[in-house]
Amino acid sequence: MRIPSIFRPRALAAVALACACLPGGAAFAQAAYPAKAITIVVPYPAGGSNDTFARQVAKELGDELKQPVIIDNRPGASGNTGTAQVARATPDGYTLVAVSSSMTTNAAVQSKLPFDPVKGLAPVAMFAKGPFIVAVNNEFPAKTPAELIAAIKAKPGQYNYASSGSGSVNQFGTELLKAKVGDLQIAHIPYKGMGPAVTDLIGNQTQLLISSGPSLLPMVRAGKLRAVGITSLKPSPIAPELTPMAAACRAMNSNSGGACWHRRARRPRWSASSTRPSTRSWPSPRSRPTSCAKAPLHCRSRLPSSAP
Fold first, then answer.
1. Separation in Å, CA 143 to CA 49, 72, 256, 291
2. Topology annotation, domain 5-129+258-263
3. If pLDDT is split at 50, 70 and 90, which confidence band does 304 have?
4. What is the mean pLDDT of the chain?
5. Which residue would you say has higher pLDDT here, 269 or 153?
6. H helical segments located in the chain
7. Which pLDDT score is estimated for 308?
8. Who wins on pLDDT, 108 or 90?
9. What is the residue extent of each domain of the chain?
10. Less packed terminus of the chain by CB within 10 Å, N or C?
């Protein structure tokens, strides 16, 4: 699957270069970046959308930088295991993590994480964004969004939906659908990754799965699953043939994305023996304009009417 031009690895390479220039990346000053292989940790099992995108990024980033880019799958704890590993890595630009929107949902629903998502990690670049595909197995009696909702309502509590794990973005997407419809009774079956979730959907162990295009469209186009809709308000270029779920469920709009992060470097602290930047050139508070009329327009609201 081709990465949209706005997220091409050239931009990712430029920001990865900036990672090594952050405080703590002293090794960068001694050798041109990159001087060795770069590792992209994927905190999910192989075969999911993030793994697919990360491998595409790794290939093109390696071609661009003339260095190996290694994919390291570290699944577990809804992506927290691999992400925590990167949060403890050296902040030198050589270890990145490719995560989905679960980076934010985990922080929202889990009271304790093995890393600090604000202080421990910093964003590098976004590499994918798009709506979810709504898929059922071939035995399920629905081909459109309206038929999907009607079929589940006709047999309340008798169907199951799959997700790649509790708190995952695809669970949130399905729960959003339930909330929009209002009385949709379908049980949640969480899996350890998207691969086994897709496998059990094909085998009719579950009946519904809402996930990204790379996870579901290959199976849909191979005839192993049926796509009944897409979670965008309008037809999407990802799969223009699919009807938006909003046609049967008003304002149903759900998207996911993928991005690379790195360990956030700590800023240096000034000590008594260190050289502080000179303050002699800093403007004095009394040098500011004495009236709003002499100040730039964007500063006037912050100035007093007369000098202090």
1. 24, 38, 23, 68
2. D-Maltodextrin-Binding Protein; domain 2 (3.40.190)
3. very low
4. 80
5. 153
6. 9-20, 49-65, 80-87, 102-109, 145-154, 169-181, 194-202, 213-221
7. 36
8. 90
9. 5-129+258-263, 131-256
10. C
Q: Which range, 162-171, 183-192, 251-260, is most confident?
A: 183-192
Indicate the angle between helix axes 169-181 and 102-109, nearest 10 degrees: 70
Q: Are 76 and 43 in contact (CB under 8 A)?
A: yes
Q: What is the CATH number of domain 131-256?
A: 3.40.190.10
- Going by C-alpha positions, the residue among 132, 141, 131 that lies closest to residue 207 is 141
Core vs surface per residue 266-304: b (16+ CB within 10 A) or e: eeeeeeeeeeeeeeeeeeeeeeeeeebeeeeeeeeeebe
How many Cα atoms occupy the beta-carbon half-sphere of 31 within 13 Å?
8
More confident of the two residues 81 and 287: 81
60's tokens: 């093109």
- The number of helices, as runs of H, and strands, as runs of E, in the chain is 8, 10
Residues 6+ apart with CB under 8 A from 287: none
Preceding omega of 34 cis (within 30 degrees of 0): yes
Report d(CA 27, CA 242) in Å as an integer.
50
Neighbour count for residue 77 (Cβ, 10 Å): 17
**Does 149 score more than 80 pLDDT?**
yes
User: Which has the higher per-residue pLDDT, 114 or 162?
Assistant: 162
Distance (Å, whole) CA 92 – CA 285: 39
**What share of the chain has pLDDT > 90, as a percent?**
45
The pair of structure tokens assigned to 209 is 């799965």
Token pair listed for 138: 């071939």
Q: Which of 2, 130, 123 is nearest to 59 (CA)?
A: 2
